[in-house]
Amino acid sequence: MGLTDTLAARFDVEAHDSDVRTELVAGLTTFLAMSYIIVVNPFILAEAIQIPGYEFFEVVQMIAIATVLSSALATLVMALYANRPFGLAPGLGLNAFFAFTVVLGLGIPWETALAAVFVEGVLFMLLTAVGAREYVIRLFPEPVKRSVGAGIGLFLLFIGFQELEIVVPDDATLVTLGGIFGNPWAVLGLLGLVFTFGLWARGVTGSIVIGILTTSVVGWGLTLAGVFERGTVTPETLPSAQYDISPLAGAFVDGLTQIEPLTFVLVVFTFFFVDFFDTAGTLIGVSQFGDFLDDDGDLPDMDKPLMADAVGTTAGAVLGTSTVTTYIESSTGVEEGGRTGLTALVVALLFVASLAVIPVVAAIPEYASFIALIVVGVMMLQGLVEVDWSDPAWAVSAGLTVTVMPFAYSIADGLAAGIIAYPLIKVAVGDYDEVALGQYAIAALLAAYYVLQTRGVIL
User: Fold this and answer.
1) Does residue 326 contact residue 305 with C-beta atoms inside 8 Å?
2) How far is CA 453 from the centre of its chain?
3) Nearest to 36 by CA among 120, 156, 129
4) Which of 87, 196, 318, 319 falls between 20 and 30 A from 2, CA-CA?
5) What's this model's pTM, rounded to 2 decimal places?
6) Secondary structure (DSSP) of 281-344
7) Any stretches that span the bilayer, and where are they (predicted)?
8) Domain boundaries, given as residue ranges, for the chain
């Protein structure tokens, strides 16, 4: 029996109306669509993770390695355990929450933030192992679950606009349009953004990766041609290749000793909530493309891909990166015909192979990497169509979830606003019996937390 026959038998390819060649092409397609995270995740997390004795771009390379390894491991579990064609990697939005809200906003040490991710991953594994997914889902208001993706999208858009300096601080209005065409950084970022949107609109596979790399090449070309000095639109210096991640890996252990209980619980809760429902929603959404759902609209044996997500998150925290989740870009491979874990196996192996280009990551200008935030942010806004805006409880709860996230610069605050608002509006319109006791309890606990937090009683 040859390798092709062995793979076909191991992943039961024929029974899923596929073949090995189709699965290989699907795996390559999915990897190209989601590989931008290898560049984007390190630049986001490096804003918050500072390691004494190491420069910014050395830390970027460490996080890139952690990103690759955690993605490969989680996707390998998806392939071999769940036999599903889904790719996993650190999620956009949760890495922004980690860096900008938890570490830079709340002042929580990055080691403690990794500890929160680790605890969330372990909790996720335990709940998945005992099959408690459906009980957890019932605890959260439906409008919050339906709108959280769009809220994260707006949050990513706001961060992306700031990083590209398209939006800048203003004393009178807090934010305003920046002097874009007097700023080479912003001009190149904007041109790269237009180019990337054009590729995406035309359905080009790997459009975000192509956009990031093309924008970087243009920046370096202008620098080498003498139009700009080094440090203007390209990194001023480039570090040597950095493959030692020992200062990063295992740092979560130190974080477990620096915990402020109430704040830590809220951070773990937020990581868990977003990861849990983002993964569940993504799995259902991608499964629709591959006709994997049963007659009730559920994914059979859903606990298996959820376990892959949980394992990836836990391992990612150990290695030094934020929450790992299933990627909606997996739909590109499914559309190419990927139906089994062989597709995911190819994605995992390509992640491992990408370790060879880690030194290149440091050469990519930051404005090029942050293009991805705006493009993905726009994609995530389509979740708004799932909200029943004619229902007052849905409209208020979803509306606050979506808008508070960017305005408060926190995914956690947006979720809390939606969760607290839902039972209040239900009671106001006389539908108090439609709210579960657990939903009242969570809303009350969050309300109490914010009373204490905004009065300065707790961090």
Assistant:
1) yes
2) 27
3) 156
4) 87
5) 0.86
6) HHHHHHHHHHT---TTS--TTTHHHHHHHHHHHHHHHHHT---EEE-TTHHHHHHTT--SHHHH
7) 24-44, 56-81, 88-108, 114-136, 148-168, 180-201, 208-228, 264-286, 306-328, 340-361, 367-385, 397-423, 435-452
8) 15-235+248-373+386-454
Q: Which contacts of 435-440 are long-range, i.e. CB under 8 A and separated by 24 or more positions?
A: 436/138, 436/139, 438/138, 438/139, 439/139, 439/140, 439/141
pLDDT of residue 237: 82
> In the predicted model, is pLDDT for residue 26 greater than 90?
yes
| DSSP state at residue 14 | G
Helix (H, G, I), strand (E, B) or coil at 124: helix
CB 264, CB 120: distance < 8 Å: no
Instruction: Give the span between the Cα atoms of 205 and 210, in whole angstroms.
Output: 9
Query: Residue type at 295?
Result: D
The answer on pLDDT for 261 being more than 90 is no
Beta-bridge partner residues of 174: 170
Report CA 380 to chain centroid distance, whole Å: 11
- The answer, yes or no, to whether residue 296 has pLDDT greater than 70, is no
Task: Determine the distance from the C-alpha atom of residue 298 to the mean position of all C-alpha atoms in its chain, rounded to a whole number.
Answer: 23
